[in-house]
Amino acid sequence: MSGIYIHIPFCKQACHYCDFHFSTSMKKKDEMVLALVKEISMRKEEFKNDVIETIYFGGGTPSVLAIKDLRLLIEEVYKNYNVVENPEITVEANPDDLDNETIRQLANSSINRLSIGIQSFFEDDLKLMNRAHNAEEAKKCLEEATKLFDNISLDLIYGIPGMSNEKWIQNIETALSFGIPHISSYALTVEPKTALHSFIQKGIIPPPEDEVAQEHFEILVEKLEEAGFIHYELSNFGKENYFSKNNSSYWLGKKYIGIGPSAHSYDGKKRGWNVSNNTLYIKSILEGKLPLETETLSKTDRYNEYVMTGLRTIWGISLDRIQTEFGQTYLDYLNQQAAKYIEDHLLFVDDNILRTSRKGKFLSDGIASDLFMLNLV
User: How far is 355 from 317, CA to CA, in rounded Å?
Assistant: First the structure.
């Protein structure tokens, strides 16, 4: 099973923390949709022997597109690819785009999953992050969306400067009050060249504190597990049967095609990425050329990726797979590097699977980097 990711590179305004590729100018929106349609068709040969299980609209903000544009793109996928009977079709959306009529139109399409960028239910947090919606819109859109959609995910951000534990607990409890079956939650990170980075450098906003973020993470895990959520990936929590099939396929190393500017693709051996420029992307596609760069992953690259994704998930790192796919040298190295973390109760081995302990979850990315192989090809 494989997936198709479609990047919609437009936003009404720039969130202060975001370093994804997008434009706040909508002038090229119609041209972009036509280019996306064409790229979907141009790349069908890559998946001629594969079955599409997921279609995911990410961004940017896909909900700025008209429903007719989303329908057109989905129809083009069906026209050019072999799609399973009931694919997971997700659209990322912001609360300010989800009025009652839009929610109704989305529900009457083949789209069956919404991922809503709430981030916080507090006005001061939303202003600090420069979100386009307000707290009232966040609650109202969830009230309406839950009437028509069963499969909804929402995003929350923790570790925001000035956010107390009590305030964070209120955010979690408000999210839970809507009966949402999936929550993705991330620590506020300061990316270079973002407005947030500039504000922190100038002393306008205090920097996020790692200790606060870790405390918020531990509260999050405890609250969501109490509410019946499964912590299946570092930043993702789902009720049973509500894990994101799209995101899970990334972590499990399945193939996917990325459509649109800056979108990434993976076929098991090679990784590719489109140019991160809307004008150049449209020009290239309309000329019949894919604006795509690729790299072939070495055995070490593939090992490192598996270690990184495996440690972030409940599926862990299969030591049998390490030996079979990468060889004894890699297995010996992994065991050697992991020993100190096992001793510190940050990692454990169960049924020949290496996993993070509850104590080690928040540190999984740092631990993974210490398990990376650096000098073999």
Answer: 7
- Neighbour tally for 363: CB within 10 Å: 19
Residues in CB range of 287: below 8 A, 6 or more apart? none
Burial 282-318 (b: 16+ CB within 10 A, else e): bebbeeeeebbeeeebeebbebbbbbbbbbbbebbbb
DSSP for 159-196, please give it.
--TT--HHHHHHHHHHHHTTT-SEEEEEE----TTSHH
Residue 322 CB-density burial (10 A; 0-12 exposed, 13-18 middle, 19+ buried): buried
CA dist 354 and 316 (Å) reads 6
Question: Would you say the pTM of this structure is higher than 0.85?
Answer: yes
pLDDT in tens, 261-279: 999 999 989 999 999 999 9
CB atoms within 10 A of CB 148: 14
H/E run at residue 317: strand 317-318
What is the structure's pLDDT at 1? 66
